[in-house]
Specification:
elongated; 30% helix; alpha/beta; 5 helices; CBS-domain; three-stranded mixed β-sheet
Length: 141
């Protein structure tokens, strides 16, 4: 019998085919990369180390046509407390709690040295629950 979603680990549900962007690249490059690769999240790195994760809403939140110059601002300028990270053995329920507590829609999965391994998004959590259920589930009417 397959485990319930609550029994899964980040390693089992994370996306490993992530799109990376160097922290010094511009916000404009981030927008173009998201559009070209059709992704909602970019993993921002410095070398192999995680710096942060941004999504399209972070980019649009700072959009002010009169004052924003996306060609000159580096993507690192968005990063503050936007990043949550966990180890791959972290349980899916812990990942969901991190998302809730930090008010983010993704958690970067890193090794103990801080190297990025993958990302778990809110979509990944919902997919796991829909496919595997949770203990005590009552079937939908």
């Amino acid at each position: 019998m397959r485990p319930h979603a609550a029994e899964l680990t980040a390693r089992e549900v994370m996306t490993t085919d992530i799109v990376r962007l160097d922290a010094e690249r511009s916000l404009w490059e981030a927008l173009v990369l998201m559009a070209d690769r059709q992704v909602h999240h970019l993993v921002v790195t410095s070398g192999e180390r995680l710096v942060g994760v941004v999504n399209e809403f972070h980019l649009l939140d700072v959009w002010t046509p009169q004052t924003w110059d996306p060609m000159s601002l580096p993507v690192r300028s968005l990063l503050g407390d936007l990043t949550a990270a966990a180890l791959p053995e972290c349980g899916l329920s812990q990942i969901a709690a991190i998302m809730r507590d930090r008010q983010v829609d993704s958690v970067a999965i890193v090794d103990r040295a801080g190297h990025i391994l993958g990302i778990v998004t809110a979509r990944d959590v919902v997919r796991a629950v829909a496919e595997r259920g949770i203990p005590g589930d009552v079937p939908a009417p």
